[in-house]
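During the reporting period the student researcher (J.K.) took over the structure-prediction task from the postdoctoral fellow and processed the backlog of single-chain submissions. One of the processed entries is reproduced below for the supervisory committee.
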Amino acid sequence: MSEAYFRVESGALGPEENFLSLDDILMSHEKLPVRTETPMPRLGAFFPEWGAGSGPDQALPQGSKLELPLWLAKGLFDHKRRILSVELPKIYQQGWRTVFSADANVVDLHKMGPRFYGFGCQLLHFDSPENVDISQSLLQTFIGRFRRIMDSSQNAYNEDTSALVARLDEMERGLFQTGQKGLNDFQCWEKGQASQITASNLVQNYKKRKFTDTED
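J.K. obtained the following structure tokens:
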């Protein structure tokens, strides 16, 4: 019998993604605007808008502006060789950081980027001069939205919560679900419907083996 899928936690809030996590795999494929800082031989054919007329080696010219998946941009980025530079997505630029500092709760994070926090943390890998401001904005945005998320999760018992989670990013949705589970477990306990403690499968199997040995 097949086992149920065991969710692997995301590592995106740390220095590296967890490539056993489906959330991180999806996040690593989100596009990031970059600019090439050196010609890239034989890549012009993959980007015809830049590669046409670039010479016999089909080089991608210096200064080409592209959108690459996060995993590829991280692989090509090098502090010493300057292969490419990264442009900040609009949601992490100063204009939006001002909006977040004014009232983070008004922003539809899922529409702007379903993995806002994880993707933002991975941007710190590229040594932008705005990294300190980005990290501070991510932290303050989370703090500003956290209380409302948990309040909503604790005051929506047996209700349709689709409207409440529609504007949340994926990490915030996980927090909301955790709050909902805590609320449901408490309601079951209060009604006397909490599940009884049972012996683990390991203990039960050990008892069966011991009984069999006794019979022999």
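The committee noted the following: The first strand starts at residue 31 and ends at 36.
J.K. will present the remaining backlog at the next meeting.
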